[in-house]
Each structure stands twice: as C-alpha cells, then as structure tokens.
Amino acid sequence: HVVYRNQSTAAFDVKNRELSLPIWKDMSDVVQELMTCHEVGHALWTPLEMLEKVKEEKINFSFVNVLEDVRIEKLVQTKYPGSVRIFNKGYKELINGNFFETVGKDISKYNLIDRINLHYKHHSDVPFSDEEKVWVQKANQTKTPQDVLDLAKELYKFIEENESSQGENKEQPS
Asked: What's the CA gap between 151 and 82, in Å, rounded?
C-alpha cells in the first residue's frame, strides 16, 4: 500500500508493507520521486528478518538505517538507471532547502555515522580523516543485509573507541 500522511519524511513499514509519503506544501516532483524510489528500495531489498536481528542483537538502529540506505540506494540506481538523475537532483534540492539542517553548522564536528549519511545523501565536501575514509568505502561495499548488520556493529565499535570520530558531543554514537 502507498499512503500520504502529514509526516516529516517518507517511510516504509517492512512488516505491514506500507510505503508512506509526506504531504508537504511545496514538495517538488523530483523530491517526491526521490523519496518514492528510496522507499521502493526498502520494499524490494530490506527484509523483515534484518530488522528483527537488529532488535535481537541490540544493534544501534541509526547505524543500520544509514548503512542500509547506502545499500538500497545503490541497488535502486542499478536496477532503475533513470533514478540516478532523480537522486542527484532530489538530494541537491533537499540540501538547498536545508532538509538535513546543516546550514550554518560545522559538518566536521558531526560524528562519523552522520557524516557518512550526509556524504551518501550527496552533501558536498563532507570531511573525513584517512582512517575514516576506509569506513566510507566499506559502507559503499555492502551487498547483503548481513553485510550491513556486521558493518554497523564494527563501525559502532570503531566510533566508540575513537574519540576523534565521535563528533562534537564526544558521547557514544547515537
């Protein structure tokens, strides 16, 4: 099912197989197409079993979410080559509209998982140390849901053990 709701962003309910899109006053066609393509990626390639493992193994969901987004967006753009333009143009529009709330903020002070997210959401000039660039590449190399879960655990541990990758708050990764 596809539904439209008053919500902040698009979402896909893997268990109930419901894709929900936000109702925004000024949503462009390309942003709606981007959100639809992204959530269709979850519908096609994010299995319920993966999300159940996240709970069972107590894996940080925000890490899994970022890494799974990287994986499924790659799959969508491979399966539907026309979507490459949609992702490029849509993310540019979202960034210009401050959807990710980065205007006036020092992205270098964000924690590593948040910077990886911005990088793969086409935010320009996201800074990474040489050691962190390895994790950016690893995020791009996930092929299976299990790859995503394994990487989420490894990356969480890395950030926990590397203060310079924890971001401005110097707290455990969120």
From this structure: 29
